[in-house]
Every structure is written in C-alpha cells, then in structure tokens.
Amino acid sequence: MSDPSSSSSSAEERLSALGLSLPAPPQPKGAYVPVLRHGDLAWVSGMLPLENGKLVVRGTVEGEVSVAAAYDAARLATLGGLAALKSTLGDLHHVAKILRVGVFVASSAGFTRQPEVANGASELLLALWGEDGKHARVAVGVAQLPLGSPVEVELLVATR
Question: What is the pLDDT of residues 18-68, one digit of tens each?
Fold first, then answer.
C-alpha cells in the first residue's frame, strides 16, 4: 500500500477513491457531545455502525454476526466518527494525527478475535492518513453494547 500522507490528495479525496463517503454526523442519544476538543486534541465519543440513523447489524460477534460483518461494522462506525469530527473541525484537513482507537466488540462466549474486528477501523484510518493514521489501539471484548450493536469505535485525534 502506498503512503497516502505522501500524496497531495486529502483524506476525503482518498475516501472517495475507496468508494466511500461520510454519513451525516450522528446525533447524540444521551447527555454527551459527539466530539470534545481541548487544545489540539479531539476525543470522538463511541460510535455505532449506523446508516441513516439506524443500526445496520445487531448481535454478538460469532453469535449472530460474522467476523467479516463486524469488521465492516467497525469501518462504518469509524466513518460516523469521522463525520462527527468533520462537523466539529469543519474539514478533515485539520486532523494532524490519529493517536488512539478504541474498539469495543460485543463478543460471544469464547470469542478472542477482537483485533481482527478492530482492523476494520484501523485499516481505514491507515488508508486515509498513511503514517499519520498509525495509532495506539485497544480492542476489547464486552458482553453487550448499546442498541445491541456488535461494535463501538472511539477515536483520539491530534488536530492542527
């Protein structure tokens, strides 16, 4: 894979080249904000895999949801996080570096392949930002997630 950060194209142009687009920014369903900025940092709240405000898949991974479908769900949740980030920053050009990605995976008993699911988020960010998309990560198995989602993705980003 070539290094996207060495190209003059923007993350949004690379997103389009991948045949992807940002959804409408998700609206919070509780007493929190989707993105909180402090100094040059932006924390993106946990995002679910939503299309048109509706969860696209429900269940636990390796229960009702395959690893491949959960990978795609993590990618979709990441797109929602990027949409929230763009809404706050005005443009994804203001993202200087992806620092940390947290991926929570609703896991069936005995499921231990959470890192494979989390790659849905990580590989997208690497494709969009190259070297600046490299990040620390946590992939955690949990019993359940909000609305029955199989994944939830949060981001910590350095901004310019």
Answer: 999 999 998 888 899 999 999 999 999 999 999 999 999 999 999 999 999
Specify the amino acid at residue 138.
V
Beta strands 95-106 and 136-142 are parallel
pTM (predicted TM-score): 0.93
Which CATH number covers residue 52? 3.30.1330.40
30 lies in some domain = no
Return the H-helix or E-strand segment holding 15.
helix 11-17
- pLDDT attached to residue 41: 98
Q: Write down the residue that tokens 């940002």 correspond to.
A: 22
- Structural domain harbouring 56: 41-159
Tally of structural domains, the chain: 1
Sign of CA dihedral 37, 41, 43, 44: positive
Residue 74 Ramachandran class (φ > 0 left, ψ -120 to 50 alpha, else beta): alpha
